[in-house]
Amino acid sequence: MDNTKEILSGLAALYPDAQPALHFKTPYELLVAVILSAQCTDERVNKVTAVLFAKYDTPEKMLTLTQEELEKYIFSCGFYHNKAAHILSATHDILNKFGGEVPSTLGELKTLAGVGQKTANVVYAVAFGGDAIAVDTHVFRVSNRLGIAEGNTPAKVEEGLCKAIPKELWSKAHHYLIYHGRRVCHSQRPDCAGCTLKDYCKFFSNK
User: Fold this and answer.
1) Residue 120, SS3?
2) Cα dist. 67→64, 83, 114, 162 in Å?
3) d(Cα 198, Cα 107) in Å, to the nearest integer?
4) Residue 136 annotated in active site
5) In terms of Cα–Cα distance, which of 172, 143, 134 is closest to 17?
6) CA–CA separation, 14 vs 98, rounded Å?
7) Does the annotation mark 118 as catalytic?
């Protein structure tokens, strides 16, 4: 039985104000923040970008930094060497290929260094109002457990979510699933007893 509609209604009731956790003012700031967020908490990224964006909040300003200088700012986000290289390479392309503006299509976003499907989906949906579902660890886990979309790769889960959820709800559903993963459906110790969606949950029914 497909309970997707009931699950989405339940999530919407739980998290009516669900929104991105990363702090940003422009599409460029969002892009940099999402690149930094790979295998790092949004809380940590926000602390780092608060300092970084105070001085280097545009492509032009960012490229005044050497890679070593940028690495010192983003060190605590982890994988700082690769992330710094990706940010500077993507920034170079934004200036030289896209007139200084972050591209607004999924295809163009994915041509930037460090921008895979998940990052492109986040920027496309959040910065430009596009219809997309980014599958991070929370979305992957909750989707599989609730049975909305089951798969062993983010790509499979994204495909399943896009089929199960109306397109106009993709972006909202993405944030609902993230919130539920952070607040209730934890990786190691999910709060099944306190979950209002457990009656629909395959993970709970198999415990």
Assistant:
1) helix
2) 10, 10, 15, 38
3) 38
4) yes
5) 172
6) 40
7) yes
Residue 133 burial (10 A CB sphere; 0-12, 13-18, 19+): buried
Are 4 and 164 spatial neighbours (Cβ–Cβ below 8 Å)?
yes
Specify the residue for token string 């030289």: 96
Alpha-carbon gap, residue 192 to 194, rounded angstroms: 5
Under a CB-based contact definition with an 8 Å cutoff, are residues 184 and 194 in contact? yes
pTM > 0.85: yes or no? yes
Among residues 150, 144, 146, 161, the alpha carbon closest in space to that of 197 is found at 146
| pLDDT tens over the chain, length 207 residues | 689 999 999 999 999 999 999 999 999 999 999 999 999 999 999 999 999 999 999 999 999 999 999 999 999 999 999 999 999 999 999 999 999 999 999 999 999 999 999 999 999 999 999 999 999 999 999 999 999 999 999 999 999 999 999 999 999 999 999 999 999 999 999 999 999 999 999 999 987
Q: Identify the active-site residue in 97, 131, 136, 207.
A: 136
Choose the catalytic residue: 83, 118, 172, 198.
118
